[in-house]
Amino acid sequence: MLEAKHIRYDIDGVCILKDVSLCVEKGTVVTIVGPNGCGKSTLLKIMSRVLRPQSGEVFLNGRNIRAINTRELARRMAILPQNKSVAVDLTVEQLVQYGRYPHAKLGGKLSKKDLEEVDEAIRAAGITTLRHRTIGTLSGGESQMAWIAMCLAQTPEIILLDEPTTYLDICYQLEVLELVRKLNQEYAMTFVMVLHDINQAAQYSDVVYMMKNGEIYNSGTPKEIFLPQAFTDVFRVEMRTLNDEKALYYVPQRVDVCREESV
């Protein structure tokens, strides 16, 4: 459904992504993990057409995203970046309405159907009680759920989430990820996420891509790739694996004493 082929991206002559290829099948939850600075967020921005790579292409259902009209692309793909900015006096309902503009008629006027989709997005995100609150009065977790509702209002086929649980308390982290899984299971919605928490990636992902130094280190199901050697090679930690019969959990033991010295 969404495929990145041989992506290379440089900043000021420094290679950030080196020949990266990634494939996201329809109806799956795909998570990208890796240490800080390995290129995870950059790859997500390229896949959503926010950035243009020096070489390589991204395809959505076989079509190069560079050849897709902006409004059409926004109807089919939504992205929630790490850093978001909006007027603090905007209400949650008004924010979610922004998600319908790719569908709106000329002049931006929302139809009855658009308003129904806004209502459904607010309901699906579980923020009905926040509908008339202004963005400036929301907690970090409440605000994140409002932004996710805006993405849902676009009624896209695929949603890209860049570190959606960062800075949230444990309750909201789980609420965000449970919503992702619910939407995936009930509506076959496709998700691509960047996560730092290995256990969250293990529990909520169908496929994981592990990155290191701007390249794909390995990919597969969490159980296939979350192996002791991978954690040592990529994260420079020893990881203890616990099995409670329902799921596997990963506990870091110590920083690898053989970490590379910075130049």
Walk me through this protein's architecture.
It is globular, with a radius of gyration of 19 Å. The strands form 3 sheets. A 6-stranded mixed β-sheet has the order 6-7-8-3-9-10, sandwiched between helices. A 4-stranded antiparallel β-sheet has the order 2-1-4-5, with helices on one face. A two-stranded antiparallel sheet has the order 11-12. Helix 3 (92-98) packs parallel to helix 5 and helix 4 packs antiparallel against helix 5. The longest helix is centred in the last third of the chain and has 18 residues, at 170-187. Helices cover 33% and strands 29% of the residues. It contains 9 helices and 12 strands. With 263 residues, it is α/β, with parallel strands linked by helices.
What is the helical fraction, as a range of percent? 25-40%
Structural class: alpha/beta
Strand order of the largest sheet: 6-7-8-3-9-10
What's the number of extended β-strand segments? Answer: 12
Radius of gyration: 19 Å
Separation of termini? Answer: 40 Å
Overall pLDDT metric: 93
Listing every helix as H and every strand as E from the N terminus to the C terminus, the arrangement reads EEEHEEHEHHHEHEHEEHHEE
Query: Biggest sheet: strands, sense, closure?
Result: 6 strands, mixed
General shape: globular
Q: In what range is the share of β-strand residues?
A: 25-35%
Count of helix runs: 9
Catalogue the unreliable spans. none
